[in-house]
Amino acid sequence: MDISVVIPLFNEDESIPDLYAWLVRVLKTMGVDYELLFVNDGSTDRSWTLIEELAASDPSVHGIDFRRNYGKSAALYCGFARAEGDVVITMDADLQDSPDEIPGLYRMIKEEGYDLVSGYKQKRYDPLSKTLPTKLFNATARRVSGIHNLHDFNCGLKAYRKDVVKNIEVYGEMHRYIPYLAKNAGFAKIGEKVVQHQARKYGHTKFGGWNRFFNGYLDLISLWFLNSFGRKPMHVFGFLGSLMFFIGLVAVMIVGGIKLTAICRGVPAPLVTDSPYFYISLTMMLLGTQLFLAGFLGELISRNSEGRNHYQIQKEV
Ligand code: UDP
Ligand code: MG
User: Comparing C-alpha atoms, which of 219, 178, 153, 2 is closest to residue 77?
Assistant: First the structure.
């Protein structure tokens, strides 16, 4: 099998027939062995019926039907698990991504040695309320991930070497960061290809509103955190905890020092609770101990987790 096309979809029945015809046209001219994997993410329209019909008439069509809507990440994850092609292409079902890009993407993986190639919708046909947050989001993602050559992390149209999709775990809303997941899994050659984009012809976007923006950032932070400290929580919590405890200790010494000098001089000593240092020492020492304990607990959990000794081996001779 040369190519698996994975298509997550949620209520896209109007687009499916056109998309299918277009995909088949392109793939047939390429003369490759292919499969089309439609993952129906709990659609409530006729999407699944259409997929069943296609699968009945065309053996290269496979459908996976979720019992309810789990989200795009879940749909991609299940598609990835099932894909058999050497190159896996993902694309949205809404006809915004063009199947005509598949030959170019395929070539970059097969001949130019890329592990992952992401589409880049240089000229984008979406409202400003979508494109503006996306710009900010991509700038942050580039910084955090260190993948500086990607303009568009969340483009639905991407191509992967099979190894990549079998070795990353897309969960939650992490489909936005697949290049980062791939990089963390050790796939270093990540590229980009400018692709044609079209306005949505049918239906409406499933990712509107500003909360997608906030959730996107929170996901990015957790990903960064997991990747940097997930396996060594003590390094961050222990450090912060010790630092705070140390500040608290210094504050205690200042409070004690003030009291002592007063006693030595024979003047009435001020109440410790009058000194701001007293409160600083109290909070800092408490916080410090808590953070230190958090780090220790994190360390215990990660040491007992199943994945603690999971390493991806590329080759053995
Ligand atoms: N999608 C999905 N599950 C969801 C939301 C979206 O499978 O819960 C699919 C959707 O049907 C489409 C793709 O993910 O094929 C991208 O969604 P959409 O076009 O709404 O996103 P946009 O292009 O507006 O960012
Ligand atoms: Mg779309």
Answer: 178
Atom of ligand 1 nearest to the CA of 71: 8
Does any ligand 1 atom lie closer than 6 A to the CB of residue 10? yes
- Residue (of 131, 174, 183, 125) closest to 152 by Cα position: 131
Q: Which of 5, 92, 171, 202 to mutate to test the pocket of ligand 1 (most atoms within 8 A of CB)?
A: 92
282 CA → ligand 1 middle, Å: 51
Atom of ligand 1 nearest to the CA of 208: 24
pLDDT of residue 136: 86
Q: Do the Cβ atoms of 270 and 258 come closer than 8 Å?
A: yes
Helical (H) or strand (E) element with 292: helix 276-304
Run means of pLDDT, 10 residues per run, the chain, 317 residues: 97 97 98 97 96 97 97 97 98 96 97 97 86 86 93 96 96 92 95 94 84 81 85 91 96 93 90 91 96 93 83 80
* 61-65 and 87-90 beta bridge pairing: unpaired
Residue 237 vs residues 199, 232, 298: alpha-carbon distances, Å: 47, 9, 9
Q: In what order do the strands lie in the sheet with 3-9?
A: 61-65, 34-40, 3-9, 87-90, 158-161, 116-120, 190-194
Ligand nearest to the CA of 205: 1
Angle at the Cα of 182 from the Cα atoms of 238 and 81, rounded to 5 degrees: 115
The answer to whether 136 and 153 have CB atoms below 8 angstroms apart is no
Cβ neighbours of 208 (radius 10 Å):
11
Ligand number nearest to the C-alpha of 12: 1
Atom number of ligand 1 nearest to Cα 93:
15
Residue 172 — left, alpha, or beta (φ > 0 → left; ψ -120 to 50 → alpha)?
left
